[in-house]
Amino acid sequence: MTSFAITLIAIGIADLTRGAGPMRGARLLVGPVVVLVLGVLTAAHGASIPLLIVGGLTCVAWQVLSSPGDSGTPHPAFAFTALAFGLAVLLLCWNAGPPVGGLLSHWAQHAAIPGLDRVGVDGAALILGLFLMQLGTGNVIVRLILRATGAIRPSGQPQPSDTLRGGRLLGPLERVFILGLALAGQVTAAGIVIAAKGLLRFPELTVRRDRTETQGVGIDAVTEYFLVGSFVSWLVALSCVAAAHLLV
Known about the structure:
Layout: H1 2-16, H2 24-27, H3 30-41, H4 48-65, H5 76-92, H6 102-110, H7 116-149, H8 167-183, H9 187-207, H10 209-214, H11 219-247
Helix pairs in contact: 1-3, 1-4, 1-7, 3-4, 4-5, 7-8, 7-11, 8-9, 8-11
């Protein structure tokens, strides 16, 4: 479990650094470095080391294959395959590694964090990883699906995102709300968050119907962009909710 949670945390942190400067090669090292640091803090040894290596390689493969671009980049299916394969290996080896130990476990024993004794350090690490996946990684997944379905146009052409602004910020906030409310047992409230997005965006789509036609992006393209992006974003959040309930 520790290796799986550490990998999720590393992927989430690495995806948050995607826009942090032009040094792409340095950003590829963020995931493996996070895996290494957390492995040391959890006193990983024995069977955990090969699993942490798999986690580090999964981070690098995800970063390389999901890099943005319109030409000369792999199909999004390769990125999802690499991510799914790496995480599946870690899940199949769920009980191969020991639980969290080392400095992190020692700190947790002395930290008076509400609820930590109930979920344990391993569970808390997994929830942290799932939370980080809602941020940059969720946006990357949405963008890859939009690119695969043609909802994102080639560079230089008018984009539906030029009409519906704020998605890169609203998407993570929405996913965090859904994950947090569902983990707190407020499933109905999480459903209200999903419904509220459609109700708030619908008047905007209606008002912009004629304007988007004159900007070179039809309302059908904007609607497709909104619906595909929204459903993929919700699927990311709900998948993490299911993982938390099944694994914690």
